[in-house]
Every structure is written in C-alpha cells, then in structure tokens.
Amino acid sequence: MNFSSSASMRNELDPDRLPKHVAIIMDGNGRWAKKRLLNRINGHEKGADAVRTIVKSARKFNIAALTLYAFSTENWQRPHAEISGLMLLLRRFLASERQTLVENEIRLNTIGQIERLPEAVRESLEAVMDATANNKKMVLNLALSYGARVEIVEMVKQIAAKTLNGAIDPAGITQKTVADHLYTRGMPDVDLLIRTSGEMRISNFLLWQIAYSEIFFTPTLWPDFGEDEFVAILNDYQHRERRFGAIPPT
Ligand code: FPP
Prior knowledge:
The chain has helices spanning 6-12, 29-35, 40-60, 80-103, 119-132, 148-164, 175-179, 227-238; strands at residues 21-25, 65-72, 106-111, 138-146, 192-195, 214-217.
C-alpha cells in the first residue's frame, strides 16, 4: 500500500463513520528482528513502540475501544527467555505509559487468564487499571494469556452455574446473555480487525466478537506499523459497505 497521501487521507476521515472498536493481531515482531539479525526480544521492543504510537492514534481519532493481542494462551509454549522478556517489556510499557493513559483519559483493561501472569505483572496491571479506572474517552484492552476458546468455555461454565442456581432461565438465554458473560462484556462488537505480517488467520482471537467485523490483513510487520498505515486502513474501512447479512437499501 502507498501511504504517501496520508496527510490528505487523515483529513478525509469522516468522524461519524469511524469504527467504535478496533482489534489488532500484532504479528511479525520475530521476523522483523530476524531480517536485521537481531534477537526476538529486540523485535518485541520495537513492537512495544508501535503499540505506543497506535494507542495515541486511536485516541486521536476518538475510537472508543482498542483491543491488542499482546500474549495468547498458545504463547506460553515459547521459550522461557522470550516469555520473561515479553513480561518485562509489558511492565516497562505500563510504567512508561501510565501518565499518557491518565492524561489522555484512556482506561486500561485486560482480557484473558490474567491469573496465569507473573505476580509482578499483575501488580503493575492493577496499579495502572486503578489509576485509569474512571477514564471515559477510550478503553485500551490488552489481551494477555488470551484465547477465545477458553473465553467461550468460561462463559458456558458461568451460564451453566447460573441456570443451576436459578439465576438464569435456560429458555431465556439470548445472544446478549452470551455477550454479557465474555471478557468483553459491556463493549461494542469489533468493527475492524487488523492483522499485520501477512498471515491470514484469526488465531483464536475474539471469535464471538468478530462475527461482523471488517477484516484487514496487511503484509507490514508489526514494528513497522505506524499512524499513516492505520489512517489508510481507517479510510478503507469507511469505504466498505457493512450490511450485517442484509441487502443494501435501494
Ligand atoms: C507476535 O510476533 C507478537 C507477539 C507474540 C507479542 C506482541 C507483543 C508486543 C507487540 C510487544 C509488547 C506488548 C505490549 C503491549 C507492550 P511474533 O513474535 O509471533 O512474530 P513472528 O511471527 O514474526 O515470529
């Protein structure tokens, strides 16, 4: 994609037709590092810089929710050194971005099996979540130790327990009941899903929430993803016709 006209594209964005919820599968940190003969952690460090950029951009464009896939349930299978490097990076990110989140009225939230994270990471997350709890302009969801199938299993367990104790009538279960028992309860469905690095997979990310998402795959490796490309994708999104299974009005 050519981003040379990005400044004019930015001006062309229609503020009334921007996605409310953007989700991103940030892929390609390892390949970015390999191409430069660096180690994988260097790639993740650059990836964390791209996270800083995109969080600020999303806030600038008044996007209500940004969900970033930072660590999947499957990522626990990576070498110990890479996992600890990622956890350290996350703590550094939380320390360095706390003030930015506060100043920009961004609320930090997490989705995933947070109990599996090291205690020091959980403490850093809780500190920033507490400091930003009342912020209303945007929610930044970090998907950590996240897997959609685990999320769905947890939802089923919660609903099953409530039907057993009489809190839920099985005949009255609706799509809203399901949505209300997912990690993303209370948030709008994902309007736009982006995956970097050229891979064309969903990889166990937000399976329920992306039912009607517009999907954008870009070959750019995550550390190289910046505001210009984000704006170009938002522009493309605004030119798509979202029909939600219906036919266009004549
Ligand atoms: C995928 O690249 C990326 C991850 C598994 C982790 C994402 C982490 C970051 C962007 C940095 C830290 C995050 C925050 C929120 C500070 P990969 O390693 O699978 O890349 P590859 O497919 O090229 O090997």
